[in-house]
Amino acid sequence: MSDSPAVSDSNTPSTASKPGPVPHTHPGYVGKCVLAPMVRTGELPTRLLALRYGCDMVWGPEVVDKGIIGSERRENEAADTVDFVKSGHNGKDQMVFRTHRTLEKERKKCIFQIGTANPELAVQGAKLVAADVAGVDVNAGCPKHFSIHSGMGAALLKTPETLTAILRSLITEVGKPFNIPISVKIRILDDLDSTLTLVRQLCETGVCRVTVHCRTAPMRPREAPIRDYLAAIADLCHSYNVACYANGDVRSRMHADEIISQYGVDGCMIAIAAEKNPSVFSTELARPWGEVVRNYLEYSQAIGHYFSNTKFCLNNLIPGAEEHGQKVTQAKSVLGVCEILGLPYKPLNAEIEKEDRESEEQAQALRAQKQKVKEAQEANRLKQAQGKAKVKQHNLQKNKEKQKRLNEEKKKGNAERQKSATPDRETQAVAGQKRKRGEGGKSMDREAGKSKKPEVAPEGPNAVDLSQPKKLVDAVAGQ
Fold this sequence. Notes:
- By secondary structure, the protein is of the alpha/beta class.
- The protein folds into two domains: about 30-285, TIM Barrel; about 285-385, no CATH class.
- The protein has 17 helices and twelve strands.
- The strands form two sheets. Strands 1-2-7-8-9-10-11-12 form an eight-stranded parallel beta barrel, surrounded by six helices. The protein has a three-stranded antiparallel β-sheet with strand order 4-5-6.
- It is elongated, with a radius of gyration of 52 Å.
């Protein structure tokens, strides 16, 4: 028995008899560790790298129904891929979806995830890729605005009648005619009962697998997943012969095996851990980032993958603290990246090589121009700094001279005040003589006072007190 349902090699439905729903015990579903659908990260090079390291199945990035409708299917022999392309507004082709042509490499292991809110559009879009993929999965779990504002993604959890109608249409018009399984990816609801009610409705449509992201729609990736519901959900799915996969903070294949054993689910889906290092799917320890980056660039160059996405994925694969990562961020082509990392440069064709070399020449010219500007700015800064230093030195000298002048004036003033406060010898001599004369006069007066005897009043009846002039006059007049 094959590991996954058969895939037709043409873009028309197979005429063979179509089986009913694949039982969840099918080896293509049991004990699997798969790559989660991730916008930008989940492009073909990442999927091929994950498969190389032991991933069992890979989900492509979500493609909206209207995005794939109207695209042209092209077989790219040089890259060995099947490309679904649309003509852009600028006349350049826009790659909508790409898968590897070789069944053994990816085609029978790649699940196309569609973003939709309309059964008719879902069928129309899925039919275009059905012959080139291993299954179609409906995104009913993405909480991002670009999904929910159109009623897609997690918004479908609030409209189960629309979601089940989409699944039934896909099963009837795509799954059975093309002999591929139809599945759905959801998030848990606010409580177990409402979650089980939704899962029961989904299982009744005939889907082959329900993948449960163990977070509610409002929960952020940094919040711990809620796995308490898993066992009950898995039991319910199995009662309908439907496989149940778990998603949310699954770190490695070993961790996936633990979750499968503990909760009874059939498989696990890895997202963030695989984005940082796809070798987490290995049964051994994750490989060093240098090896992973080398292998990623090998796949990227082999299919002529567009550089902006290559650079985005490399920035996730190279640890942020590494100096190489900072340099890769500034690279303008795969050629530049290979030169930075010291890895072989093997472009898919001469056209890509020409574009890469032109990009590098432009980048080098731009870097040289920036270097000149930087040097000019540095010279100007140095000149300004030197000018400021001269001004500062000049001001210091002026302040020093001013302070010296002030000190001299202060010293002179102090000397003058001291001089005025201390009389010269001549002045001191005159003052001394004055003091001496003053003291001499006072001494003579004191001596005169001491030698003068007091007058004694005469005695007798006719005696007159000579010390009293008035009485003397009166006495003379009386005589």
